[in-house]
Records
---
Amino acid sequence: MSTPESATPARTPPEPDLRFNIGDAADSLERMRELYARFGDIYRVYSPARHRYAYVINHPDDVKRVLVTNHANYHKGFGLDRVKMLLGNGLVTSDGEFWRSQRLMMQPMFHRRVIAQFGAMIDAANDRLMARWDQLAGGDEAVNVTDEMSELTLEVILRSIFGDDLDRLTRELGGNPFELITREPTRDLTFAYRFRQLRKLVSELAARRRSEPGEHFDFIGMLVSTRDRNTGAPMGERELVDEVMTLIIAGHETAAATLNAAWYLLSQHPEVEQRLHAEIDAVTDAGLLSLNAAESLPYTRSILVETLRLYPPVWLYSRRTLGPDVLAGYHTPAGVDVLLSSYLLHRHPQFWSDPEAFRPDRPEAQLEAKRPRFAYVPFSAGPRHCIGETMAMYEMTLHLYRFARRYRLCYPPRQPMELEALINLRTRHPLMMRLQRR
Ligand code: HEM
């Protein structure tokens, strides 16, 4: 890797003699894997649909430059038009000064002190799932783990946003109006249209919170009470609804995909499962696992860390250069796309030994000092890193802790999980697993 100073600005990175819409094409991950094998840590591909080049990077130093040290030179890249239709201008899709002020207003909502208080709510959602699974355990029917994880994480994010109003709404409307998110996995225009119909409900719920300030502990209440640090103004109505829609999608699918992959990996690695059982069975206090206690289960945590390494749900980050930059020693003009795939970075052979293997006790995963910080970015890094990381890790640890204490999930060995890499990385087909009481 050359430093920006040693670059020869006129040099352009290698490129294949084919043009395609990298990142949009359904087989982008496979093609990127091939192109990485041919060209290494940087190459560029012309996208006919976007009429511009995408520079694809895969070295931790360049990842650091784009996400952290020179982040001000980058805005969110392509693909956002589709996502914007769904989410509006929330934290995931916004940029510049607007993004900064929204992020500042929302950052305190994700403080550990707040997230710690969601523990009982997450536990209760797990209780309800467990009551259902207890009926199924030992039977012949397989459990659709993909759907179950999707429902669980949807419930958690909805309750963290709407609190008890979720039950009221479900009663009044004769069903949970947000269920379409799990029922309709395809994120197409029809879904976007139906999802947008829910905006009115969110506005009504926000209005309720405005009339009952301080009586509820949930994100929508916090969004209603937050104030701009400089102007003291509350968040606008439309902006607030955009942020709620964003939290629902960003907080739900990612955690669901990770838990799904974790159960798959555990079923294929009995030795890892045994060590997990040993760690969680040794906890004698049967009460709620606090945030601190959850973070003190090192092996359980490293299972999630390693799952996120192999199957990062946000598998592709896209950015666009505002001004020129130098990446891997190559001139990178203004107005081009820069792509990085955490999926490929997390399997970079220079930084990960036996990169395809699931090894929660791998030294690089355990000891952050043993790997370059930017070879592992499942939650991104720098100012745009995931605001929900602490919540996600707590939610996922609590689930594994509760459920692995009680059940084993079995999946035919050596039947590999097939992946689908679209906006998020997920399983192409639902995982049907047999449930056993331990
Ligand atoms: C395993 C679970 C999760 C993973 C792997 C994950 C991953 C990520 C990544 C990689 C980004 C940055 C994307 C980019 O820069 O292009 C991101 C951003 C974001 N995530 Fe998460 N996320 C998870 C859970 C959550 C949860 C639970 C919430 C909310 C409750 C959440 C809310 C957000 C938001 C609002 C952003 C945009 C932040 C910004 O740009 O300021 N995420 N997430």
---
Amino acid sequence: MGSKQKCAICSTEVEMVFNPMKEWSIDGVLCGDCYSKKLGEFYPGDHIRVNKKED
Ligand SMILES: [Zn+2]
């Protein structure tokens, strides 16, 4: 097996990688946590709106 990839956001080594959506402008792959977090930022609730929150 090759080396593990790192999450583009939190730099954690991830086995199960998620590909970010194009509109997220993220270069690389994401871990599950960051992926769901991003999803929540871009699609909060039922409304599709861009509402960026910086932690
Ligand atoms: Zn992450």
---
Amino acid sequence: MRALLLVILGLAVGAMGATSALSALRQGTPFHDGVMAVMQHHMGVLQANVRAKQCDAKGSASHLARLRETAGDIREAFPDMEPAFAQADDGLLKALDRAVAATPGTCEALAVALKPVGDACQSCHQRFR
Ligand code: HEC
């Protein structure tokens, strides 16, 4: 019984910690939400194009370039984050540099280029979101 209470207390404290970390982020400007929303938009369009099998090289290049540019703002949008956050950010930037350099001309190539990008988004979210 006592052990169970401690577990529940631990969960409650953990949840409180998580909420206060997030609200600390939210007390800043809406800038970081904007950066994420813009990246989500371009990622979403590219993924929808792959699903629709309509991946023209020019459109893909432009969405990838916008994604890369916006990702360059992550560090300014989340100031004072721990070094592991910057590493996660570097992972995304590298994946995007490669995707831009690959200039995917087919849906297959675009899907291959997007995979590490999506993984980089996800791996940071798992830790920090
Ligand atoms: C280096 C870490 C990191 C990377 C990389 C990252 N994100 Fe995020 N993202 C976050 C954090 C932290 C939040 C939570 C921010 C908050 O709740 O205020 C977030 C929130 C979001 C949200 C919700 C925004 C909102 O309004 O609350 C979306 C959508 C999103 N990210 C999309 C993406 C996409 C798409 C990528 C990859 C192209 C990506 N993120 C890469 C850290 C990251």
---
Amino acid sequence: MIIGIDIGSTTTKAVAVEGGKILTTVKTRAFDSVTSATGALGKMILENNFDISSIEKIIITGAGSVNINKEIFGITTHKIDEIKAIGLGGMFLAKRDPVIIANIGTGTSIIEASNERILHLGGTGVGGGTITGLSKELIKTSVFDNIIRLAEKGDLDQVDLLIGDISEKDISFLDKSATAANFGKMLDTAEKEDIAMGIMNMVFQVIGVISVFAARSRHANCVLVTGNGSRNQIGQRVLEGISRMYNIKFEFPQDAEYATAIGAALSED
Ligand SMILES: Nc1ncnc2c1ncn2[C@@H]1O[C@H](COP(=O)(O)OP(=O)(O)OP(=O)(O)O)[C@@H](O)[C@H]1O
Ligand SMILES: [Mg+2]
């Protein structure tokens, strides 16, 4: 079996792959990249009663992989470029190519992957880290579950300037509930819940719109969403709103948060 480990800026994901199938996945979070990688692997071995000798090799990727230059636990360890890993993982999850992938991690990258080539189209520093960073300052929590719980009860009308606030009629394809300016209203009556929703909405609207433009530039009508951001249900709803407006579909595959690790594990197949 081959283990793929993606040492991301926030979390570390590991997958075990054999014969093109995912056997198991684990997620960990540690202060440094070596502890993250060895911790993820150790957890996987213990939880699944894996025999260490059955691990053929380990392939690492992600921002934290630059710090690891040795084999791990005596197992042959290779490194792979993160963009390539996202592309390979995205094609595996989408079961097709070419595919446009929006990988929403701490930041966001947009990639076009096909069997011929994997192209980094661009990205934005607006991502999951923007949600936790702004929340820490504005609503005094960076605990992700708290942010989600607050946002679920939030009212966007308290923070965003909506088309309905500035116009009696729809403007072009924007109806009255569409955002004219994120945080452009910011009423004094806005509560933590409303601000949490405003942050979540802004981050996913930005990602959604740049994904749409990226997809259009490559004549695609569908974007596969990967990374931890793919699992965010409020984010999914925001992206579905963008989807209706721009007629580009967003897909949220199972195991989306493991896409990069899966791509790493599959890279030497
Ligand atoms: N339980 C959680 N713990 C930490 N972050 C979470 C959790 N649930 C969701 N998130 C969100 O996921 C983001 C991290 O996503 P992900 O693990 O895909 O990124 P990463 O791979 O570490 O980063 P990058 O790919 O940008 O280097 C966090 O910034 C946060 O917004
Ligand atoms: Mg990542």
